[in-house]
Amino acid sequence: MMHYSATQNAFYPSEMQADYIAAGTWPDDAVNVDDETFRIFGLGEPPSGMIRVGDDTGQPSWQPSPAEPIESVAARQRALIESALSATLAAGMSYTLPDGIDDVIQTRPDQDEANLLGLAIEARDLRTAGETGAVMSLRAQSNRVYTLTPEQMIALTDAAKNFKQGLLAKSWRLKDAVSAAEAAKDRAALEAITWNNDTPNEETA
Q: Hey, how many other C-beta atoms are within 10 angstroms of the C-beta on 98?
């Protein structure tokens, strides 16, 4: 035999009642439940979208799960946007190198950004000094090393900068949409916001 407590939303073996009472942990609202009730509500999985709660008689029952607070949904969406931004930067930027080979330029913020900035500064210094025919080296994601002129390196690093700025603008635009949907209490609109479904507006296209 089993007992069920609605306040604790838990089952208690009837044969251990004396032990619980001695320990001061036996709930005052514990009621007897039959084996079938225990099998369904104690051992079985709840139906989709349902949770176990005590009903008006103190017996276990299934009820719809409470809706996630809209603030929690918004926080989760913002976290997903940040994660997608980081993943996209980590994947790098597709770029056609001067020799016509398509490769990926690494754009990880914590590893590659400083390297690209250093290359951009060096390339501009060489251009200023008139060393336009100088040769610079760049290792792409494929691990292949390419040789570029200062002008080619400037074009590449500018493209990488624009790539990152575009992704940041996209993340800000999505977060603004999250804030607007949260303020409007529009759960459907909030849950529909995803990184892949973003459509730039005319100002950011």
A: 14
Maximum Cα interatomic distance, the chain, rounded to a whole number of Å: 93
In the three-class reduction of DSSP (H, G, I as helix; E, B as strand; rest coil), residue 41 is classed as helix
Exposed/middle/buried for 153, CB within 10 Å: 0-12, 13-18, 19+? buried
The 8 Å CB, 24+ separation contacts for 140-145 are 140/95, 140/97, 140/103, 140/104, 140/105, 140/106, 141/92, 141/103, 141/104, 141/105, 141/106, 142/103, 142/104, 144/101, 144/103
| Pair 37, 60: CB distance under 8 Å | yes
The pLDDT score that the predictor gives to residue 60 is 97
Tens of pLDDT along 66-107?
888 999 999 999 999 999 999 999 999 999 998 899 999 999
Sheet holding 2-5, edge to edge: 10-13, 2-5, 31-33
Which residue do the tokens 């509500």 mark? Answer: 41
Q: Is 195 helix (H, G, I), strand (E, B) or coil?
A: coil
What is the rounded CA–CA span in Å between residue 200 and residue 93?
19
Structure pTM? 0.69
Query: 3-class SS at 123?
Result: helix
CA distance 49 to 132: 66
**Residue 26 corresponds to which tokens in the numbers above?**
């036996």
